[in-house]
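We emphasize that the prediction below concerns an isolated chain of 89 residues; any contacts that depend on oligomerization or on bound cofactors are therefore not represented. The input was used exactly as deposited, without trimming of termini.
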Amino acid sequence: MFSLILFFFFAMQVCVRTKLWDTVYRACTQTTNVVDTIFQLVHVLSREDVQRFAALLWNLGKHKNFKLWQDVSETITQVADRAFQLMDD
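Result of the prediction step, given as a token string:
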């Protein structure tokens, strides 16, 4: 359970760094489950921000897998930068 709390805190910090946290937080407080939250975000975000959010979700999952399977720790900056790099490719 503690690792889930740490992961959520890390994900929140990545969203803050990418300037999506206010919108993500608002969507989380207006919905009752993850699916509804994601659909709410797709509805309210611009196309570019939806792409950024999708890249962030992908890279947060990748970050979690690195930590779980390879015991590799990454910084918030590394995860956010990899998401931006994914969008540029």
